[in-house]
Amino acid sequence: MFFNKFSIMEKLSIFVPNSFLAESKDSKIRTYKVGLIGRYAALFRANNIVIYNDNSDGGSRDDALYMKTILEYMDTPQYLRKQVFPITPELKNVGILPPLRTPHHPATDEANVGDFRKGLTTKRVRKGTMVDIGVGRLALCKEKLSVNKVLSFRIEKLGKEILIEPDEPDSVYWGYDVITSDSNLYDSITMMKNKPDLVIGTSKYAPNINSILDEVQTSIQQANHVAILFGGPYSGINSLINERKLDYEVNTVPKQGTETVRTEEAVASTLAILNILLN
């Protein structure tokens, strides 16, 4: 079942620190943990996953790039992965990643006029650009496009020649973008091209979201771009950003039964609540 966008919100961005993997040394566990972030982001229709620098001893740019590679691999349709991603040590455990099963990951190579598909631009020709859209043969886009880029297309004609145009659906979820930032959390927010107009921090020290539920719901439903901020294993939101720079700081796991809530668990619980408030 795929969900349409019911609110006016056009963008949802989640912010995760580069120290997310600091406590995980086993390569399979690291891959699996990142896979959970990708799965939850897709499940609750996040448009951006921003990996920021929390300046802790456990965070590193290498870990941020590792996370970006895994997340982008997950978001890429299966029929394009071998062409887009060479075999690297970072990808040796991708077999344990959960599938996204999103609309841009079709389970078949059958296609119809009007369908949208992700495609890899393979070469320029006299007529335009040849594109692999995963239907058994290359399609032609009459525009001159950069080569080796994954873009979205709409099928215009099926026959001897498959004709496509660059386009993306606006009524279904179409995956996420991954952004890595060497800057701190606040600067990572302010430097976004499409700046959020509602910023929500998550913390176990914040008020229970139930106490301000109606207010938060109204703000979310009126926002165009919502940013949800998550801390890491060593640094909570309070130590990363001044609360005056937040529109809300909330606890989405009240009365937690464990000493700590892991980042991936906070992502799942927070986005689940957001999903209810939006719909």
UniProtKB/TrEMBL annotation:
Name under which the protein is recorded: RNA-binding protein
Species this protein is from: Methanosphaera stadtmanae (strain ATCC 43021 / DSM 3091 / JCM 11832 / MCB-3)
PANTHER family associated with the record: CLASS IV SAM-BINDING METHYLTRANSFERASE-RELATED (PTHR12150), METHYLTRANSFERASE C9ORF114-RELATED (PTHR12150:SF13)
Residue stretches in coiled coil: none
Domain of life from the UniProt record: Archaea
